[in-house]
Amino acid sequence: MAAKNHAQWLSEPKLKANEWVDSRIYSDPQIYEEEIEKIFSKTWIPVCHESELPKAYDFRTMSIAREPVIVCRGPDNEVRAFLNVCPHRGMIIERRPAGSFLEGQPSGNPKRMTCMFHAWQYDMRGNCVYISREKEGFQDRLCKEDVGLRRLRCEVKFGGFVWVNLDDNPKVSLEDWAAPAFGCLRKTLDAEPLEVFHYHKAIVNANYKLWHDTNCEFYHDFMHYHNRVTGFNDAYFARKNESFEHGHIVVGTFEVNYEKYEGFDSRAALSFPHLPPNQWYMIDMFPGMNFNLRGSALRCDIVTPLGPDKVMIEFRGLGLKRDTSEERQTRINHHNSIWGPFGRNLHEDLIGVQGQGTTMQTGSEPRRILHGRHENQTIHDENGMRHYYEEWGRWMNRMPNHPEQPYAEAVSVAAE
Ligand code: FES
Ligand SMILES: [Fe+2]
Q1: Which helix (H) or strand (E) holds 333?
Q2: Greater confidence, 410 or 129?
Q3: Distances in whole angstroms, Cα of residue 263 to Cα of each of 24, 186, 348, 383
Q4: Ligand nearest to the CA of 92
Q5: pLDDT one-digit tens code per residue, 125-150
Q6: H-type helices in 216-311, by residue range?
Q7: N or C: which terminal CB in the chain sees fewer CB atoms within 10 Å?
Q8: Nearest by Cα to 397 from 65, 45, 39
Q9: Nearest-CA residue for atom 3 of ligand 1
Q10: Widest CA span of the chain, in angstroms?
Q11: Residues 22 and 365: beta-carbon distance below 8 Å
Q12: CA 7 to centroid of ligand 2, rounded, Å
């Protein structure tokens, strides 16, 4: 059929219910609010890597589901997470993105988190250790034991990432949530300590799920011109998108011929432990985190939704902690040549989702987004998205293709 009139444009595609979604799931403010409440407030979120808190009293701040969060390393070496909110009158306690409490700030003592508003202080376990003018103001009606910080579930796992869950009673443990999807890389990531060597972030005017979508299909290789003409072979296209419980997807590996890229060399010498040379695995975690290991460098994407059509994506690059400075520089080059700001890949992906975000701004007319490609579950298939949106439908109790309707189990991807 030729170009369509308005009614034809709005008609439903001739595909199964799980093979398309309604664009309102990417733009509707009410759906977004529900996602914050039903998904981001209840799932395990990797907030940073333990190497970003190398010493006791180091901290990082971030937010989950709009809640300010602080992660710090105690003198006992344990990494803990708290709401970064003062129990007195709700001031954010620490405003820096990262730092150390070892040195005192102008309005605080060493080894304490100090709320600069009225100088209440907390230790690395979240205990309140000082209330200014305590007796004068509260007499005996309130004491330090009554006003500790809100501690959050926090585990360091799967290669040293720091996972936090706002829910005190998560539906599923972190181990059960993530271990099957990490199976392909767990031995590799846990063999020895890793270290973050690269960090940048992008704020994109697009829904966070669109970033997940582009990470879990390689059909958009057409955008990555170099990918089509350089180091890839039949094994590249034969890789499978394997789905796991809880909405996760793993893209299988193959041996990349880096020598065939112009200006590139084999990455075998710096392969991560227990990994055959030049392999490439990708783990796409529900609701949008990504772990991508190209032989010698690991990339991790962490998404923080900022609105229905806005997302912050933090990109980290990791190598082995024991790298020599020369090895580290080579790893950085490997990482940046693909994923750095002037690399071949990441910025093109960002252009793709930004373009989708432009057509799916809040208030734009609902339209159909097709996820119906079947190519034997290989990388050009869209089974990763179908799997993801089944999970999304269950958490939200909404049909992805008719979000006004309650969720009904779609055709399972495994049965396709
Ligand atoms: S709000 Fe933190 S000390 Fe008052
Ligand atoms: Fe891409």
Answers
A1: helix 325-339
A2: 129
A3: 43, 31, 20, 34
A4: 1
A5: 999 999 999 999 999 999 999 999 99
A6: 225-229, 234-238
A7: N
A8: 39
A9: 118
A10: 80
A11: no
A12: 33
Please report, for the chain, how many H helices and E strands are present, in that order.
Answer: 11, 19
Contact between 62 and 47 under an 8 Å Cβ cutoff? The reply is yes
Least distant ligand from the CA of 350: 2
Q: 205-246 pLDDT, tens per residue?
A: 999 999 999 999 999 988 886 655 556 678 888 999 999 999
Considering Cα of 72, then 73, then 76, then 78, what sign does the dihedral take?
positive
CA pair distance 321, 193, nearest whole angstrom: 6
Cα-to-centroid distance, 385 and ligand 2 (Å): 15
Ligand 1 centroid to Cα of residue 139, in Å, is 18
Single pTM value for the model: 0.95
Beta-strand relationship, 67-73 and 58-64: antiparallel
| Digit-coded pLDDT (tens) for 2-51 | 899 999 999 999 999 999 999 999 999 999 999 999 999 999 999 999 99
**Pocket residue to mutate for ligand 1, from 82, 83, 86, most atoms within 8 A of Cβ:** 86
- CA–CA separation, 164 and 43 (whole Å): 8
Residue whose CA is closest, atom 4 of ligand 1? Answer: 118
